[in-house]
Every structure is written in C-alpha cells, then in structure tokens.
Structures
1.
Amino acid sequence: MENLRARLQKIPPLWWQAGLLVLAVLLPLPLNDYYRAVLWRTGIYAILGLSLNIIVGYAGLFQLGHAAFYALGAYTSALLNLHFHIPLVLTWPISILVAAFFGYLISRPILHLRGDYLCIVTIAFGEVVRLALVNNIFGITGGANGLSGIDQTVLFGLTLRTPLHHYYLVLFFLVLTLFAVRRLENSRLGRAWMYVREDETAAEAMGVDTTWAKLLAFVLGSGWAGLAGALYVARIPVVSPDLARFIESVVMFCIVVLGGTGSIPGVFVGTLGMITLPEIFRFLKTWRDAWMGVAMVAMMIARPEGLWPSRRIRMEIREKE
Amino acid sequence: MQQLLQQLINGITIGSFYALVALGYTMVYGVLKLINFAHGDLFMWGAYIGLTGLSALVALMSRGGPILILPVSIIVIVTIALVGVLIERVAYRPLRSAGRLAPVISALGAAFILESLARNIYGASWKTYPTGLVPAGRVALVGGVRISVMQVLVLVVSFLLMALLYLFVYRTRIGTAMRAVSLDHEVSRLMGIDVDGIIATVFLIGPGLGGLAGMIVALYYGSFDFTLGWIFGLKAFISAILGGIGNIPGAMLGGMILGIIETLGAGYVSPQWKDVIAYAILILILIFRPTGLLGERVAEKL
C-alpha cells in the first residue's frame, strides 16, 4: 500500500491532471441526455463551489448568501439579452462585473463583523436580493415568475443546443476556474487569505492588509458566482427568483465544507455529494432530503475536516484532539 | 394614532413569537457558540405535534375550550425538548472540538432531516388547527383600540415564560452555571460544573420553549405548512442577532423590535416589502453596532 502510494506520488502532476481532463471530456459521450444534463449541473455547482471556496475556504469568512450573486449574474445576462438584444456570450463579462460590484457593495461595510454576525448579514442580503426579484424591483425582473424568452447561446457562429454542447462550455470554464484558483492559492494574496483565516490579529500585526484581503476574497468569489449564473442562463432560457433561495446558498456552503474547506479536490467531492448523488437518488423522492441530512450529520461526525481536506486544515483539527 | 396603537399591539404579539424562538437560538449559542439551524424546524414540529394532540383531544372530548390547550402544551414541550436533547447528543456533542464549520453542517443536516420528516409524515399541504379552542371575541381598550382574546392569551403566556426564564437564568444555581459555561467550558469544569449536563439542560429549555411557541403561532394564525420553521426560524435568528446573540434579554428585545418594525413596515410602507425592511434594518444595525443592541464588546482572546 505504502509502496503503491509512493509510486503514485512519483507520477508528475501534469500527467494525472491531463488524464482527468481527458476523462472529463470523454465521460458524457456514452451517457444519455439526462445524465449529460446532470454533468452540466455538476459543473455549474463545481464552479460555484470553487468561487465560494475563495470566501469560505481561503479567507475563512462565513458566507451563506452566495446564491444571491449566482442569481444576480443570471438576471444580468438575461436582462441585457432581453432588453438590449446583446448576444449572451457578450453578457458574460458584464455578469461577472455586476456580481463582483454587488459583492463589493455588500461586503465593504460589513467586513469588520466577525464569524456569525457576518453569516447572518450575508443570509439577510441573500433574502433581500431574492425578495427584490420576487417583488419585481424597478418593474424589470418579472416578479415571482421571473424572465423567459432568452436567446440561445451562439458561440463563434455555433448555436449551442444540446446538453453536450453546454457541458463542454461549462467544462471549459471549470478548467479555467481551476487554473485560476490554483494560481491564487499559492499566490501572495492566497497566503494572505489563509493567514487572515487562521489568525486575523496576527495577520494584521505582520503587515497584511486584512480588510483589503477580505474584500478581494468577496469580490472575486461573488464575481465568479455571477459567471456561473450567466452560464446557467446560457442553457436554461428562464430565470426565476428561485435561483437566490436560501437553500441554494446552503447547498453551496455544504459543497465547500463537506469536501473540506480550502481544498480544491474537496469542492469536487462536495459537489458529487450534494448535487450529483441526489440527482441519481431521485427515486427516493420526498425522502431524499432526509437522507441527505443523515449523510451530512454522519459525514461530519466521521470526518469533521471534510472528505478530502487540505493538508493544513487536517493537521489543525487533528492537533486539537 | 389609533391605527398606530393597533399596529403596535399586533407588532408586539408577533414580536413575542420571535422572542420565544430567539431565546432558543441565543441560549444554545451562548453555551456552544453554534447557530442551531435545527431550531426553526423543532419549532415547526411543535406546531405539528400540537395539531395532532389538539385534534385528537377535541375529537375525544367532543368539545373545544382553552382548557384543552394546557395538557397538549405539556406534551409538546416534553416531546420537543427530548428531540432537542437527542439532536445535541447525536449531532453536536461529537463535534465539540471540530472547529466551527463542521457543527454548522451537522446542524443544517439535522434541519433537513426534521423538515423532510414533517413533510413526509404530515404532507406538504396547509394544515388547519381545530377551531373553538380560544374564544374569538375582541376586547376594547382605550381610544378605540381593540385586542383579541387570542392576543391577550399569547402576550400573557409569552411574557410569563420570558419572566420565568429570566429568573431561572439569573437567580438559580443552574442558571448561574449556565452563564459560567457560556463564558468558558474549561474553567467551569474546574469549578465543578457538569458542563455536558448544563448543555443538555439548555437543549431541554430552548427547544421546549421553541416547540411551545410553534403551537402558539399555529393557534394564532390557524393554519401553517412545513415551511413555517424556515420563515420563523430565520426571523427569530435575526432577532437573536439584533439583540446581541448569547444575550437573553437581548433576544427578547430583538424579537419585539423586529415584530414591531415588520408590522409597521407592512402597515405604512408595503406588505410586500416588510421582510426587506426588516433585513435592511438588521444590516444597518449590525454595521453600526457589530455585536447587536445589547451584546457586549468582548475583547478578542489572543
């Protein structure tokens, strides 16, 4: 066993990364459209999980209103397309900017809040966004029914129609996200985030601009959730305030924590557990949530550090025992 | 003026519901520093068990009347309190030393279980309480303001409970131990306090109160569905934060303020936006008083 492990570790990371990518490209081919759509959903939530992981995992800030930014991105893309007939592809950067801007707007005044106070403000903000969408704010969001009649995505002259097309689109952005968060994790900023997470006071004493670091975590994470929202609109031509429901934020939060906070593989494990498996267990119908709850409690008791934790967090939790 | 007073009475009634539920959040937070996300669903279960109990009793006695509420209240309090202790034992106790995130997920998991159980056992449709339990009349107060018998009952019961709880926490030995545990587990243990026992007691009282509040709310509105726990849970949680979480008088104050703001917002601004107003005020209060209205500014431990 040890031998095998040592041998596996000798394989250059580039090899197994390339292998995983090939697998991800080939995986949907033998599946039918339903499972391809499940894979698409998995990809969207993996992007959301990775974006939330910047806020919760790296910077250690409680964010239980992430779905609001997802919804903001989706509505931005939908509204620009419906009112100004901007092709969806061109709305994506704007979705990112709008979500990031709202991320800045909400986080700027509340960054000095700690732990659970921050958590409740983000919940409240998420609910404000959802209710504003439900109440048809400025008369443009279409109320509880949302917006429909959004164009199909046209990418370099190719109209994306099938779930397979959209899966590859999401996969492209997922790989891009992965590349970006990997770079971030090991950057100066990434180290500053983890320092803030472990001990804010010490970080500040060492000259880390903690407000700036936390603000950037919020802005980057929120903006990237906006992109996930835009990608949702690229396939589903209907948006509704349901995108911003609290339960969506809870699912995203669980994706980050179940797999292991601050761990990139952990986000994928969490997405499999919270999105893919429940999709496959649809036959359980109304009992599905109960089983999900049982799994969440059991998982946390068995492995409080998450299923695939980052090395740092695992050592920290083990040390306390 | 008359309308304002009337709105205030309604606001205080709703505020007292929030306060009762907020007490459960704040007490648990005090001893465990954990947001008990399952609390809202325990509250909702109080409404369901009350429904079963009251329906059965009304059918059995073939009559209504407020006297029937008393035995059912006791059943509700005892059942929900036991479920609360069970959840603490199974889902929270093993995670005491596991950082701050793992217990949150465990609490959310427990909430999923409770909600799904309610939905499967009672169904997703709206449930209606038996009528005729509380006389429907209204009492005229000064200046043409009227208060219903139900509101009188709700206010008397909740203020009584809050007063009792206050006395319990601030005047008894167990209450003193509870406050000690909320300050420091280790030192409390050194002082000979049974920390696990105290935490279990908190999980008896908080959910017990919450469950009873669930029944009272369902009686007050007459009907509810399984989303009740989520809506009231969030509002109550906001009340607890508003007053300063971990602070018992704070939870009562926060509940009242939220109830009044919400009713005035619904009456004078727009019923659609009342929740947004409540959340906006919460955000504003936290920006200017980051630890809530009555929360103490505690120096960070280094």
Note: The beta strands of chain A are 154-155, 158-159.
2.
Amino acid sequence: MVTSLGSSVDETFEAMRAARSGVARVTRFDPTGLHCDIAGEIDAERLIEGHPWDARGGSEFRLLRHATAEALADGGLDGITDRQRIAVAIGGHGRVPDRDVIQIMTRHAREDGQVNVDALRADPQFDAAEFTTRSPETAPTLLAHHLDAQGPVLPIVSACAAGSQAMGEGLRLLREGRADVVIAGGGEPLLSFSYYLGFALLGALTRRYPSPEGASRPFDRRRNGFVIGEGAGIMVLETLAHARARGRPILGELLGYGDSADGYRITDMHPEAKGAIQAMRAAIADAGLSPEEVQYVNAHGTSTAINDPTETKACKAVFGERAADVPVSSNKSMIGHTIGAAGAIEAILTMKGMNEGVLLPTINQEAPDRKCDLDYVANEARLMAHDVALSNSFGFGGQNACVCLGSAARGGRD
Amino acid sequence: MALKIAITAHAVRTALGSDAATVWERVAAGTTAIAPVQGFDGSGFGKPKAAQIWTDADGPEEDPALRILGPHGRLLEAVARSTHDAAQLGRLAPERVGLFVGMGMVDSPIHDLVPAALASRDGQADMQLGAFFQGGYRAIHPLWPLSMLNNVAAGQVSIDLDIRGDNLVLASSADAGMRALLEGARSVQRGDCRAALVAGVSGRITPFTYKRLALQGRSAVTPGEGGAALALAAGEDSESASAHLTGGATAFGSAQDGSGPDAGAWQRAIEAALLEAERPATAVTRVFLHAEGCGEAHEQAALAACGLDATPTVVTKRALGHTGAGAPAIDLTLALAALPGVAGPILILAGGPEGGAGALVVEAA
C-alpha cells in the first residue's frame, strides 16, 4: 500500500492509529486561484524504483507496482508454476490529458476554438506516452505482464467503487474456479492539473477549511466537500486451501461481496440510500452472515454534504436498533479520497485493524451533525477486538460496492 | 456442465445498419462500410479509412451536457433501451437486473478546455496557469469532468432504465468487451441477477484514434464505430429464447511481436470455452475471428492447434472496422442472425492489444 501517510501498510496504519493527517497543500502543480488547493499526496521519492514500462503505464502503474511488491514480499507468487491460474483485477480509470497536452492544444488552437490538426501532428512535443497511459487497461495489463500472470485481467472502471469491485470480482473468480490467485486492488495516479481541476469544477472538493489537516471531516457538521488523494492498495486473494498448500500466511478473509447501482443521479447518491443498503445487505448475505455479526464499518465517508448522512441512513437500515453500537469510521479523514484505489486501501486497513484489535479514527470530529449520529470513532483510535467488518465504496456514476471482511484469526477457520 | 444462458433480446448499431439480420446479410455479401475517414483532416495519417457512424454530417451536439457524455454514451443508451424494452426487463424488480458494459476508449474532450485555455494565453501562445485559475477555467462546462470517467455512460443507462442490480464496467479494448459479456452471463448463472443487460460500444474515431494505433504499432487496424446490447436470462425466463451462450473463457499472454495475444492465450481461451460448452472443435460451424489487421498469425496458429483450421470463418471487421470494446457484442448479434443457417455452435473470438484473449460459444436453443 502507498498513501499520503506512508509507503507501506504498517506506515499508513500506524500514522492513522496516531490520528495523523496526510493532507497538505498541492505540490504537483501550483493551484493558486482555485477554491481548493490541498490534497493527500504521496511521497514520490519513496516509491519503488523506476521501471522501463513506467513511461507506458504512467504513475498508476508505478504505484500499483509499489503496492504489489509489498503484497508479494517474501516470495508471494513463488512456486506457482501454472501462471494461467493467476488473475489480475484492478480498479482505476487511466490518466486524463494533462496540462502539457492542453498547452500544446492551445498553442495550435485557432481563434474559433478548433485545433489545427496538421500543426498538432507536427509538434515534436506531443507526448507519445500520453495515449497509452490514458487507456484504463494499460496499467493492469502491464502489471499482469510484470508478474507473469496469465489468467483473466479485469480493468474495472467504476470510479470510486472500482477498488472494492476489483476485490469482489476477484472473489468471484476464485469461487468459480477461474483462478487460484488474484492480485486485486486499485491504483490512483499522481495528481494532475486537469484531473484536479475536473473535481474542482464538479464542486466535489472542499471549499472552506481551517487547515489542510482539518479539511477532510466526514460526518462533521462543517464538512463541505472531499479532499482528493493519491495511492494504491493491493491484496493477494487465494482460496484457503491454496494458501495453506503454499504455506502462505493468512492475513484475513474476504467473506462476501455485494454491489448495486443507484439508478438515481450521476453525481449524487440516492437520498434514501437504496443502492448502498442493497450493496451492504448483499455483501453480508454473500458472506453467509447476518447483520448482527458485523462489528465495524469502514465507511465510504467522503466528507461531502450528501454522502455522509446518506451512508448513516444506510447503516441504520442495515443494522436497525444496533446501528448506534456499530462503530463506523472513515480513513478518508486522514488521507483524502483516493477514488479508484479507495476501496482497496480501506479494505486492507480494515483487515489490519481487525488483526490489531484497533478501530482507526475519523479525525476532525468537532461539530456534531444531527443527521450523522452514529459512533464514528471520533478523533482517536480505539482498542476493540473485532472479527467481521464491512468496507463501503460508493461511486460517481451510481455504482455501489461493499466487501465483508474477516480477521486473520477467523480466516484460518474452515 | 455447460453454461446455458439465453439471449432474449438484442439491438445493434453499426456503420452498415441497425438491424442485425440486415447487417449480417451485408457482411456475408461482402459489403463494407469502410471508407475514407470523414469529419476531420486525417491526411497526415496516410489517407486513413474507417467505418464511421458519427460524422460532422450528424451536426455537433449543441447541449454541452450531452456533448460531454459523448456519442458513445448516447449509443449505449440507444441499444440498451431497445434491448431493455424488447426483453421487457422493466417487468422485473430493478434490483434483480444487472448491467455489464465494455466501454470503448473515452477520450476526454480536451477541445472543450481550449476556449478556457485560449483566454489564459500569454504572448507566446502558451496558457498561463495563474490566469487560468484566476478565472479562465470558469469557461469550462461544470460537467466536463464526467467525461474523464469511463463508467458515466453506464451510470446514465442505469438511471434512465432503472437498472439497480449487479454491475460492472470494463474498458477499453475488445477483450474487455468480451469479459463484460461473460461476467454478465456469470452473474445470471450465479443468480446474482435474474436478467442481465450486457453491452459493448466503441469510442468515437478522432485523430487521436489513429495516433494511438500508430503508437501501438497497429496502424494496419481500420477502426470502426458501433455497439450492441443483449439481454441475458436463464431458467423460466429463457424458455422462448432462440439461442444460448453455452461457454466462454478468457486468457492472457502477450505475443513477442507486440501484436496482441499470443497463440497460447488464444488456444487456452478457445479450449476452455469449448470445454465449458461441452462441444468438440469438430462441432463448431463458424468462427467469428478477431482478425483486427495485425496478429492474425497467432490467432490462426491457435485455431490450428485446436483443430479449427478448416472451420469456415467470418471477419466482420472487413465490413464494420474494429469497434474495440463494442466488437464482441456486435459479433454476437450477427452470430445470432447467422445461427439459423448453420447446424451447430458458433465460436466468437476477441482480443486486446495488451494480450487478453477471449472466446465465446453461442448456439441455437
């Protein structure tokens, strides 16, 4: 895993346990003039060393390589001779045309706003790699090449739900016997000018904040938009029997997966949380469990006006009278919203929390919102033994995904 | 056990028409829609050709919101709606209907940024970030960012048709389109949804299309525009269906020459699909080849290895161009039109430039 709080699972988890924020002023470009100028940027200096394919796969590929290297440490795929049984399922969306492309387009624009294609074609600065890094399947397929994984490759593009959907689809590949091992997760490229601008134009980013660290405040009354973040997270999924036969440590269990579509609006959740409720219930049912057995929810918790009370409604609908007793917290309060990577990062942190007996906090809880009245593990991590948890991801476009996770101790059971 | 997923309705739009039977007749007769590209000056790419359905003759989309969702999104909407209505999916609970889409390359329309950038230029004709952020960016339509997201068109379909069940959007090559079809079939097979709307659409052909093909060393590929949607069901919902998907598989392996899947990947996909369909290679009556214009030697080697080298083949791309993520769904609708004229299953192949290969078996009910 790599996030603005660390270049490994342990670093990120310990920083979150200490309730630290990785949000700071944007450095990838000068955002002066925009209504938001902060992000959860990673320390690119600490990324895995470069690879000849980075130009083709872009920063998304490098971040995925970084996370995969950690996930596969200590010979993670060694001994698997049938590489056709290794699948790759990655959430992401490719890269968007960045400032340099717009700059070149502008240079060759006519006064009517159309571009002189001949001049554009002849411009030696027109970046060849631009096109390959923009294709959503490039980074996942290069990762498959890199790992010599010859099974199915699923490049999933469901925006903020993509990382969770990647894990869910990976679970299905295993259950249906279409793979023995799935490299599943999500990656979000390093911030670009046009990508950041896009979310600013949508009005999704926070507009008012006391400090960068205090900007992402899911469930707090003063929340007013999300903070965008960079990162990647990878899980190695395999059946219990396969993992045991290989002598691999079992870090946790992916128990169930549910997904849905809101069918409501592209940019807003259904106000009654219908899709979110459907996905959460489906994940619990898919795990063969009842809502009473869920002990914690890692929330989508974006810090937007609509998501947080709607997700609260969903938790109340799913857990009923127990809802107030089920802790819910948002990792995005500390690293921002990592979009295509969010579901994977948050699921990994959820598993780590179960194994450590720790609930990670939601920071910046200062002003209670009467529409957000659950236990959000406010401001400080909490010790609590728990073995079953949900991790929610709800995407732009209306796709919802939820994974049900079990602790390592539980994962060792037959 | 063979997969047995019924196809209960379908709709298609290609450069040769919007009726599967008619398009199939034209393809079988050797008619082609491939012609010199229209809508922009492509002379720098060596007189490029394409099978287009969107040209300037259609006129620019005046509504910025619709323009941003793109012609591919509106095509997806059209074929999905036709299929949805024909299959009467509206009778089912929305939560029990799934949506699985292979989405062609969504090129963010950076032309829509140019007016804002032009207003922020310095004397050297370069955009100045300071001026851009101080106000130039306000000239950009607020929905422009949605064009960056490959799932938005599918999200719009789920809204318009009230589809709320299991869903997946994969991008952006033909193998992604094939996987979307297969994942929809698996969802029905598992019972995660009672019916699935599966679809694939191409991206729009632009100068970037040719630039991208050139950079990939695939200039021999002739692009096309189009898409198709199909409704899948099983059990009691499928009794009146005339055709079934009976097997499907994907595999991954990149040819050393960078042309796409290697022979091994093709062979694994074909063998696994036929195994699931419980059909020997000798039973296959037609193979709809991927045959995109490069890498055919690997596909042919796999067919030979599977004992399919003497089986009659169809290459729809000669007529319709390469419709990317839309190609498998289009080929499947044309195979349905071809099925009454053959005595056994049809095998459909699709591959991607990075090495993904897929095979699908369809046969009469």
Note: Residues 9-94+135-409 of chain A form a domain with the Peroxisomal Thiolase; Chain A, domain 1 fold (CATH 3.40.47.10).
